[in-house]
Amino acid sequence: MPPIQVEVIVQNYFAEQAAEQEATEREAAEPDTSAGIQSPAIELATWESWFERWLEALDPKLSPIQAYELSLRLTDDAEIQSLNAQYRQTDQPTDVLAFAALEVESALPAAAQLEMPLYLGDIVISVETAQVQAAQHGHELRQELAWLAAHALLHLLGWDHPDKASLLEMLQQQQALLETIGETVGETIGCSSSYYQDDYQDEKQNDKTDGASLSIHS
């Protein structure tokens, strides 16, 4: 069996904003709402390494060539609130959204599966909310982003948490995934459903819109 390979398409809202400001060589007419928000210094190679290790640990056996692809967008509260309102009819920011492609797309033909990576879906993380949550729980932004990305990956692979018991199981799996990359958010978070105390209620309200399966965590 070949080693798992993951291609991650990372879109960084803050890098896009900086490039746009540099190109226009002028200040935005409105106040910069992203001021004070850290642009996460996590390289693409690091993200891909994390997802590869997580998929190796989970061993989903979904791709015959062990090749996967997903997209990751790092954004702010305003953009994720817009997506949350559009796809879940909840007009407020959240920390992470997961659009699971496997639930809505038909399987690739057998020949294509031997040549193309399997697309798992899209992950959107609000760095603004992640920064607040990291401060609340006493760890670094890097750890919070890893925690949220691991949670979203589980949703892309079909994990759900309609009740507290399944949520606790999912959080414990997240903790195990973070340990594979040498990160931790602390036992009190990884083993307590209070970290996402309202998630199991959110799960009951999930909508499937425009062919996307959306999991919301706030």
UniProtKB/TrEMBL annotation:
Its cofactor is Zn(2+). InterPro entries: MetalPrtase_cat_dom_sf_prd (IPR023091), YbeY (IPR002036), YbeY_CS (IPR020549). One of its GO terms (molecular function) is RNA endonuclease activity. GO terms for biological process: rRNA processing. GO terms for cellular component: cytoplasm. PROSITE patterns: UPF0054. Binds 1 zinc ion. Zn(2+) binds at H151, H155, H161. It is found in: Cytoplasm. It holds the Pfam family YbeY. Keywords: Cytoplasm, Endonuclease, Hydrolase, Metal-binding, Nuclease, Ribosome biogenesis, rRNA processing, Zinc. Coiled coil: none annotated. Belongs to the endoribonuclease YbeY family. Single strand-specific metallo-endoribonuclease involved in late-stage 70S ribosome quality control and in maturation of the 3' terminus of the 16S rRNA. HAMAP family: Endoribonucl_YbeY (MF_00009). PANTHER family: ENDORIBONUCLEASE YBEY, CHLOROPLASTIC. This is Endoribonuclease YbeY.
